Amino acid sequence: MNRLINLVAVFAILFLLGSCSKDSDDPAMPTEKSKILVNYPWRMTSVTDLSGKTIATSLLNMETKAIAEYMDIQFQANNVTKALERNTSQVLNGGTWYLIDDSTTLDIAVSGFSGKFTVAELTNSKLRLKRVMPVGGVDTETYMVFEPVIK
Questions:
Q1: pLDDT score for 1
Q2: Which of helix, strand or coil describes residue 62?
Q3: Which of 11, 84, 89, 134 is the most exposed place for a label (fewest CB within 10 A)?
Q4: 44 neighbors 67 (Cβ within 8 angstroms)
């Protein structure tokens, strides 16, 4: 009987130790924002000024027009990003992405779409990136507004 009580006590202790979770401070662990980014490809729906007024596509530079009209941007968990052609999902371009500065800045390195973008909003339904870009030939603070592509 004594042996049975000791055996039950050992199993109870092992069970309790095994069920305790260990907090991880691993910087490689994805943040909530990075998990949202990799859920779906993102499609630029508009470029706005800081007040939210939509900027006409004709006033944007060639690279921004191409993203707005032809591409979806896909962020992958391994920090690879791809520009996909909207209709065929063919990879047109690729590079890397990182969320830095406590997930307030999205650092993207893709030909034609590189730089550090302030993450103004990131939810499951919207991504707004703040960036100075040429609008009608004048550098202007803008928001690039993206929505997830759910197929």
A1: 53
A2: helix
A3: 11
A4: yes
> Can you name the residues that pair with 138 across neighbouring β-strands?
135
> 């000024």: which residue's tokens?
49
Question: Is 114 domain-assigned?
Answer: yes
The CATH number assigned to the domain holding 129 equals 2.40.128.540
* pLDDT tens for each residue of the chain, 151 residues long: 555 454 344 444 444 444 444 444 444 445 688 899 999 999 999 999 999 999 999 999 988 888 889 999 999 999 999 999 999 999 999 999 999 999 999 999 987 778 999 999 999 999 999 999 999 999 999 999 999 998 7
Distance of alpha carbon 118 from the chain centroid: 12
Asked whether residue 125 is assigned to any structural domain, the reply reads yes
- In the chain, how many domains are there? 1
Stretch (H or E) spanning 120:
strand 115-122
148 token code pair: 């997830």
Domain range for 101: 32-148
Q: How many residues does the chain have?
A: 151
Residue 83 CA to residue 45 CA, distance in Å, equals 15
